[in-house]
């Protein structure tokens, strides 16, 4: 399939001007790949996703422990309030109980504020780590595609899963272009651990 160099350059946002006499006419070797599918079905993506599930479960467990501790103090506060409402108690004893109740309520507010801030920090850290880790996975895949393209002599490999700002595929049509997705899926997953031989990775 013949594809004009100038059209490709314009599609990529730049125009490369070359001497007509120096440019040799030839058929461009073009292929496509579904990068979204490669990312989704790459075994390292699954391993990374599993590690974040473990991390999320750890956060939930630790949050439950904190909530249970707060609930225990709330129950203590309720008992103090019930005792303070006893009409047979002296004013001095009631004041003492109400002071204890006030301290318990302040403790509950402080612990809950700490818990909320802790969750926000954990979520922010999780988001940042996911951005980095999944970014590394995508970059690794991109290098594999580039290496394959260079080895096999392709002039262009387009991502057929890319979408424009309008939500439609950027690559709407490619006549005779080879789809490398299946081939590359075999390449990127050739070292995947066999079922039952892998342990879920633990987050740092």
Question: Secondary-structure map with pairings?
Answer:
Elements: H1 5-11, E1 30-33, H2 35-41, H3 43-84, H4 91-152, E2 156-159, E3 178-179, H5 181-188
Parallel strand pairs: 1-2, 1-3
Helix pairs in contact: 2-5, 3-4
Rounded to the nearest angstrom, the distance between the terminal CA atoms is: 49 Å
Listing every helix as H and every strand as E from the N terminus to the C terminus, the arrangement reads HEHHHEEH
**From the alpha-carbon coordinates, what is the Rg to the nearest angstrom?**
31 Å
Our count of helices gives 5
Report the average pLDDT across residues.
83
Q: Please give the largest β-sheet.
A: 3 strands, parallel
Approximately how much helix is present in the residues? Answer: 55-70%
What is the SS-derived class? mainly alpha
Percent of residues in beta strands? under 5%
Biggest sheet: strand arrangement: 2-1-3
- pLDDT < 50 stretches: 1-23, 200-204
Q: Write down how many β-strands occur, each being a DSSP E stretch of 2 or more residues.
A: 3
So what's the overall shape? rod-shaped
Number of domains: 1
Describe it for me?
The structure is a single chain. The protein is mainly alpha-helical. It has 5 helices and 3 strands. Mean pLDDT is 83; it is low at 1-23 and 200-204.
């Amino acid at each position: 399939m013949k594809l004009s160099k100038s059209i490709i350059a314009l599609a990529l946002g730049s125009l490369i001007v070359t001497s007509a006499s120096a440019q040799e006419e030839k058929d461009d070797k073009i292929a496509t790949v579904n990068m979204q599918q490669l990312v989704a079905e790459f075994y390292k993506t699954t391993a990374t996703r599993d590690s974040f599930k473990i991390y999320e479960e750890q956060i939930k467990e630790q949050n439950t422990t904190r909530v249970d501790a707060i609930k225990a103090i709330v129950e203590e506060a309720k008992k103090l309030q019930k005792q303070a409402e006893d009409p047979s108690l002296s004013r001095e004893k009631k004041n003492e109980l109400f002071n204890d109740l006030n301290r318990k309520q302040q403790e509950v507010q402080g612990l809950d504020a700490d818990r909320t801030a802790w969750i926000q920090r954990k979520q922010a850290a999780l988001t940042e780590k996911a951005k980095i880790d999944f970014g590394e996975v995508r970059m690794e895949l991109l290098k594999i595609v580039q290496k394959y393209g260079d080895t096999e002599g392709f002039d262009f490999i387009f991502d057929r899963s890319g979408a424009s700002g309008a939500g439609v595929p950027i690559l709407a049509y490619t006549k005779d272009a080879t789809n490398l997705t299946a081939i590359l899926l075999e390449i990127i997953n050739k070292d995947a651990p066999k079922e039952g031989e892998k342990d879920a990775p633990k987050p740092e």
